[in-house]
Design a protein that fits this description.
single chain; 6-stranded mixed beta sheet; 17 helices
Length: about 550
């Protein structure tokens, strides 16, 4: 028996109304690589049965206390009904990508049964017309409650469910090795649960005092400047923010209220899903032109560009940047898949108001550096530690009634395996992450890298995103624009250097004229967009230098 952490319990309490707190994946397999050239459903069942034995998360069910006197417990069963959890369906003819997305969206719109272990898997056949996928392939949609798994542990489970080679599997040997792994917990009595609850609540009293003192010191260390940045509108608004915190409304606690969009409303019960695949090699090439731009920065730039295009088409583009809630892993050396949710959150602008891709990318890089400094000062573990410190009788009602910030957007990026993987001999061709859409944050864009490609997946509700394929096109266009802008920048830089070198050193009138003429030729070849981007970058650098040199 294992008690849920504060973060695990948070994801349970957030599940209310149309807020479904499960995460999922869509994996597509090519069965032609399997021994015999095919994979049967019973092969997938046996594969699951043997591989999940090493993960107790698949055998756990919830046991909760009345009145939220303590956090719930995971109780392990000595067996698991694999045929209940792994199901078999098919998409109708012709079995194209759009039909698969619709089917996945329907499955993602159903909450999990809390009386059972909180996971399900669906083998989906009939994929005969999906671009880039061999006809006759099958998909596997797997969902687990977020109380069980976070991004890092989910990746570890994904690795464990697969093999590095397509060779034939000795199921009998695997079943024998797995037979001794199962460990059943005895069902706890109410007396035991209440006794534990009393002891836990008493133990939390000194830790609450210690945590409050440490937090007060941390906030004080930020100084007057940080407090002003947090709330720059005076004492009256500060008191209003305190009242909002007490009533559970977190929206007013943002440093600056992000613009309200169609994604800032409450979500409906009907999910939509789309995904695009982009080659990672192009991300590395772009980084050569913008050295500070990590792959995550480029991903945020794509999201910002897609939102710029999508909301412009709807005539709903705000003048200021949309802000995304970005999960951060808090895992250190503990890489095991059974340490609960180890995740914090930060806020990041995606600069959806900037049309030029490189200008947007550089603005995101600057914002990322600022966000890191603020997060390091406050401590990214603050929210997690608070949830661990508060007694459940206080934390659970607060979480059940809290109003999530209406910022419209959640963005996450998880690194996956760099090598091909196999299930029951079938090669994993595509792997798309499917995450959570919430009230006030109705669009979730998650990226997952696998075997040389980055899959970017959008999840929303039907009312907010009625045309998910159009948004997928916006993601592709935003990526191509960023790639083309980086290529123009590279061509501009190379041609500029080559053309200016023989034109003289600029110390004579003839040399100055020659260099100016050469620069004009380079600019004409590069095009106006590259020149504009370079001028904008120069202007930003000038403003930055001026701000640095200005007296305090």
């Amino acid at each position: 028996m294992r008690q849920l952490s504060g973060a695990d319990s948070m994801f349970l309490q957030f599940e209310r109304g149309n807020n479904f707190m499960h995460v999922a994946s869509l994996a597509i397999y090519d069965p032609s690589t399997a021994p015999g050239g095919g994979v049967r459903f019973k092969d997938v069942l046996r594969h699951f049965a043997t591989r999940i034995a090493q993960f107790p998360q698949f055998r756990r069910r919830l046991v909760s206390l009345p009145l939220s006197l303590d956090r719930p417990y995971w109780v392990e069963s000595d067996s698991i009904d694999v045929e209940f959890h792994v199901r078999h369906i098919a998409v109708p003819h012709p079995g194209d990508w759009r039909q698969l997305c619709i089917q996945v969206a329907r499955l993602h719109s159903r909450p999990l049964d809390r009386s059972k272990p909180l996971w399900e898997a669906y083998v989906i056949e009939g994929l005969h017309n999906v671009p880039g996928v061999p006809p006759g392939s099958f998909a596997l949609y797997t969902k687990m409650h977020h109380a069980i798994v976070d991004g890092e542990s989910g990746t570890e489970i994904m690795r464990a469910l697969h093999s590095l080679t397509p060779e034939s599997i000795d199921f009998d040997a695997e079943e024998r090795s797995a037979s001794g792994i199962y460990h059943a917990d005895r069902e706890p009595t109410l007396v035991e649960l209440y006794s534990r609850a009393l002891a836990h609540n008493v133990q939390k009293l000194p830790s609450m005092a210690s945590f409050s003192l440490a937090t007060a010191r941390k906030v004080a260390s930020l100084g007057a400047e940080a407090l002003t940045r947090f709330n720059n509108q005076g004492q009256g608004d500060f008191l209003a923010n305190v009242r909002s915190l007490l009533t559970g409304d977190l929206s007013s606690l943002l440093p600056r209220m992000p613009p309200q969009t169609r994604f800032s409303r409450d979500v409906s019960a009907h999910r939509v899903f789309e995904a695009v695949s982009l080659p990672l090699v192009d991300f590395r090439a772009i980084r050569q032109q913008v050295p500070k731009a990590t792959i995550n920065d480029q991903f945020l730039c794509i999201v910002g560009g897609a939102l710029h295009a999508y909301l412009s088409a709807k005539k709903e583009l705000p003048d200021t940047s949309m802000v995304a809630m970005v999960p951060m892993t808090l895992r250190g050396q503990e890489k095991g898949g059974d340490v609960g949710n180890q995740v914090g959150f930060t806020l990041m602008p995606v600069h959806s108001e900037i049309e030029d891709p490189l200008e947007r990318l550089r603005a995101i890089c600057d914002a990322a550096a600022t966000s890191k400094r603020v997060t390091d000062a406050i401590g990214k573990e603050l929210a997690r530690d608070l949830l661990e410190t508060l007694p459940s009788i206080v934390a659970d009602p607060l979480l059940r009634n809290v109003q999530t910030p209406r910022i419209g957007l959640i963005v996450s990026n998880v690194r996956g395996p760099d090598v091909p993987l196999y299930m029951a001999g079938a090669q994993l061709v595509n792997y798309a992450p499917i995450s959570i859409a919430l009230d006030g944050m109705g669009l979730n864009v998650t990226a997952f890298s696998y075997s040389g490609n980055m899959w970017i997946c959008a999840v929303s509700c039907r009312e907010m995103l009625p045309d998910p394929s159009f948004f997928a096109d916006c993601l592709r266009v935003a990526f191509e624009q960023m790639k083309e802008a980086a290529a123009r920048e590279a061509a501009f830089t190379v041609a500029d250097t080559a053309a200016l070198a023989p034109a003289g050193d600029g110390r004579t009138i003839e040399g100055k004229v020659a260099r100016k003429q050469a620069r004009r030729r380079v600019q004409a070849k590069a095009g106006p967009r590259a020149v504009k981007a370079k001028a904008a970058a120069k202007k930003r650098r000038s403003r930055k230098v001026a701000a640095t040199e200005s007296p305090a």
